[in-house]
Amino acid sequence: MSVNLNTTLHHLPLAPPVVVDPATSVRDALRAIDARGAEAAVIVDTASSVPLGIVTLRDALRAIVNNECDVAGPVASVMTGGLSSLPAEATVHQATVLMFRRGMRHLILTGADGRLFNVVSQGDLYGMQAADSASLANAILATRTIAELAAQTTAVSRFAARRLVEGSGAEALCEWISALNDLIALQAIDLVEGEFDLPYVPWCWLVFGSEGRLEQTLVTDQDNGIIFVADSAEEADDLRRKFLPFAQAVNAALDVCGFPLCTGKIMAGNPAWCLSSHEWKRRFDGWITVPQPKALLNATIFFDFRPLYGREELVTELQRWLLHRIKGNTAFLRAMAVNALEQEPPLSWWRDFRCNDNREYPRTLDLKGQGIRLFVDALRILALAHGVDHTNTVERLRGMRQALGMPLEEAAAMAAAFYQIQRLRLQNQVSGEFPEAANRINPDRLHQLDRQILKEAFRQARTLQQRLRLDFLN
Q1: Is 1 part of any domain?
Q2: Fewest Cβ atoms closer than 10 Å to its Cβ: which of 70, 232, 341, 349?
Q3: What is the distance between the terminal CA atoms of the chain, rounded to a whole angstrom?
């Protein structure tokens, strides 16, 4: 199967875990690990099947060599307990970031009932990654100041440029850029948080837009917010006043790290986007209940959100509420579709490119606004209509393909078209004609093959828009 950072962990081709109970001797646990050619065993409570800890071959051998354990004694004496775990429904991206941040080689996966599902190792997750991305992640997590962290953003850009030249696909490359940028943002929040006495309430840092979709390229600003728990409007106002200085400091730190402040002020340091759970629902409800075209046009970025730091369950609950709230709301979906169809693929009737009349950059195409946006907007609307909780554009397509009655080949062609435009964006950002306008490209300067690929990608966008028109405007 194809494995990417959006793949859910329960879909990974993992071998069954080695499981022992706490009373098993260290000797027998090692025998079990060796017999299976594994690296570790999970210690599980025999009555509840709840994982209690893990013992790795490396840790057990170290304990034996250092005379720190009796091989005839219980394996519970050498296990590492209290480990972080993830539900099997989490993604490879979530597991990768968590394991990097915690310096873990193995991660326990649990089912919905809290019982052991499996164990995933570093090799299972990113055996496909180059060693330089692992060393880069470790360098990010080793930083102790914002200035040190800022230097790692440049390193990420060099890493991406190198991988692009080496032939990495756009899907994998965008995912790894997003994963490494996540680590930078997480480290920035960690470094800044220590300077503030934050309210002792559940809260979470949200990311929107391309970061929310795990589709970041080399040129990206920051779009973020905060969600927190408050029992009343008065408490929400009080908590907001306490969170805002911290949020503004994080926004400033991210700016130093190469993620410019959002020109539209969609940032956690803006009181408009530092909200309680109830306030976020009320904000979304306003867009959904009275779908004014201009307001919705500015709000689309908020429908691509995911948790980054803090209590993720707050964001999961908001996502579930949002999908339930939108279900069957044809007026809202129609208004979203009208906005999405205002921008058409830049193809003329004789099948050449239709360049815009930008005076500063004549004869150019905007690969983001005239290309990527077409796929993102259409698939966002279709995903919301069909209750698909993915935020990544291609994962949205895959998640609702069957509900749309779309042949596998058609969905694959659309995904390939999306990533071909992303590839051209990345190439242009590395060595483009207009460094100050990194998403603009002169199609006349493209190789003939890239011209044909780009034209076909735009045709796929046109097909997707036709489906949107049929589903919501007829």
Answers
A1: no
A2: 349
A3: 38
Q: Are 55 and 29 in contact (CB under 8 A)?
A: yes
**436 DSSP assignment:** T
CATH number of the domain within which 114 lies: 3.10.580.10
**Spatial strand order in the sheet of 80-81:** 19-20, 40-44, 51-56, 80-81
Same domain as 253, residue 147: yes
Q: In 341-407, which ranges are continuous DSSP H helix?
A: 373-385, 393-404
Asked whether 286 and 296 are in contact (CB, 8 A), the reply is no
2 pLDDT band, cuts 50/70/90, is low
Q: Is residue 117 exposed (0-12), middle (13-18) or buried (19+ Cβ within 10 Å)?
A: buried
By percentage, how much of the chain surpasses pLDDT 70?
Answer: 96
pTM assigned to the model: 0.85
Instruction: Give per-residue pLDDT as tens, 239-274.
Output: 999 999 999 999 999 999 999 999 999 999 999 999
Q: Which residues contact 55 (CB under 8 A, 6 or more apart)?
A: 26, 29, 40, 41, 43, 75, 78, 79, 80
Provide the total of helices (H) and of strands (E) in the chain, helices listed first. 17, 13
Residue of 126, 124, 147, 144 lying closest to 135 (CA atoms):
126
Q: Is the dihedral of CA 37, 38, 43, 44 positive or negative?
A: negative
Distance (Å, whole) CA 87 – CA 113? 10
